[in-house]
Amino acid sequence: MSVKEPRIGTLAIGDELLTGRIADTNTSFVGDALFARGSRLACARVVPDEISVIQEAVTELAAKLDFLVVFGGLGPTSDDKTTEAIARMLGCPTVPHEPSREKLNRYLAGRKRLVTAAAEKQLLVPSAAEAIANPVGLAPAFVVSGLVGRGGCTCFFLPGVPAEMKAIFSRDILPRLIGAIPGDTSEPPVWRCIGIPEAELQELLGPLEARLPAGAWLGYRTRFPENHVTLYRRAGVSIPADLHGSIEAVLRPFCYQRGREEPEEAVLAALRRGRAILVLAESCTGGLVAQRLTALPGASDHVWGSYVVYRREAKLAMLGVSVPTDEAAVSAQTTRELAVRALEKSGAGFAAAVTGYLGPTGGTDADPVGTLYLCVARAGARGPFLEKKKWQPNPDRVAAQWGAATWILVELLGALEKCYSSSLAATTELPTT
Question: Domain check: are 218 and 364 in the same one?
């Protein structure tokens, strides 16, 4: 018997979305959250900040959907017209959301600023709607059921600011949508792979993909230098355990991590488990590894800092590593010395270093553009160090730098996990590969 899924759509409101000034990342976020739970968006639309156009779009979409998620037009400026448009459709006045008013008053008083009419405009919701407090910003969201005809579609109206939208959607809206999706809505398994192209993954998984039941499929996503494989299934579809295990076995040599956690998040979690401090010595990545780690809450407890030793003279001045030639700057020896000296100078428990040729010029016959040298060192280790040489295609410098940072994070994660595993608990040595 087929399982009826709710029809869910999105409506993004804003002139800036149609002029190309900003992208509609809100729909991507909502679509991804639903897709991970066995459902997908039935439609997505973008309209300008015009009351009649907003009303027309809401009327049309609500007539054919079970749920409509609307973003934008709830703010304090003259081009924020969504609340007024919906209040007119409901035939009711707009009223301030009192908890949001109290929040606004506290916010402005703390900054010794006056409450203006424009600031208060963002507090308004249709009186016939259910208001939802904004945990990040000031403008409340609101919910309307049966906006078109009797019963029917439930419409959620959220701020367009991505941080505010995501917070409200994750806390208040997604649970309602998940409750309406039949069957198992747990997130699907994700294998984060590195060191293998997407085409080769497809070649390996093709025979297993052909055995998947109807309503299940493998999704491939490239985020250079990683390739993610997700086992999706529609609501109510089960994956045989042996088939799941076969996919796991095929991907094991390339999968450095399961799930949606970013490598920097996993590294910080591993440092937290080991109550360890990390220092970095970055050449070609220019501090990007440190930036990715320190963007996370709690990083100050475990990240000592980073030596950005980009030029040869910087390596000598900052860490005392003498590099006689440009070619020697990208090498296993230099990378090892950078890690060791960073460890000694900082007093940290772990050090990670990276050098490489990111192009478009540079490189040698032995180490062409795309070559990376990675090293992880541990305080008190008798040796050896974890050292690896990698090569990655470099589509452009921005992608290449991100890729190099990802590689050292992945290798660092592997080293930390091995150090804290039961088999290595009694040794101070790191594996060399």
Answer: no
The answer to the question of residue 87 being in a domain is yes
CATH of residue 310's domain is: 3.90.950.20
Each residue's pLDDT, cut to its tens digit, for the chain (433 residues) gives 345 789 999 999 999 999 988 999 999 999 999 987 878 899 999 999 999 999 999 999 999 999 999 999 999 999 999 999 999 999 999 999 999 999 999 989 998 888 899 999 999 999 999 999 999 999 999 999 987 665 689 999 999 999 999 999 999 999 999 988 877 777 889 999 999 999 999 999 999 999 999 989 998 989 899 999 999 887 678 899 999 999 999 999 999 999 989 999 999 999 999 999 999 999 999 999 999 999 999 999 999 999 999 999 999 999 999 999 989 999 999 999 999 999 999 999 999 999 999 998 899 999 999 999 999 999 987 655 799 999 998 779 999 999 999 999 999 999 999 887 643 333 333 444 3
Does residue 2 belong to any structural domain of this protein? no
- Residue 230: name the closest of 253, 239, 24 by CA: 239
CA distances from 161 to 29, 140, 196, 266, 317 (A): 12, 12, 37, 28, 44
Q: In what order do the strands lie in the sheet with 226-233?
A: 216-223, 226-233, 190-194, 255-258
- Residue 60 tokens, joined: 């049309």
| Domain's final residue, options 158, 180, 202 | 180
Q: Residues 285, 291, 296, 301: is their CA dihedral positive or negative?
A: positive
Distance CA 34, CA 10 (A): 12
Whether 430 is covered by a domain: the verdict is no
Parallel/antiparallel/unpaired status of strands 386-391 and 371-378: antiparallel
Residues 417 and 346 in one domain: yes
Asked which of 143, 160, 180 is the last residue of a domain, the reply is 180
Spatial separation of the C-alpha atoms in residues 142 and 159, rounded to whole Å: 10
- 3 occurs within a structural domain: no
Q: How many domains in the chain?
A: 3
How far is Cα 202 from Cα 207, in angstroms, rounded to an integer?
A: 9
Domain of residue 303 covers 263-424
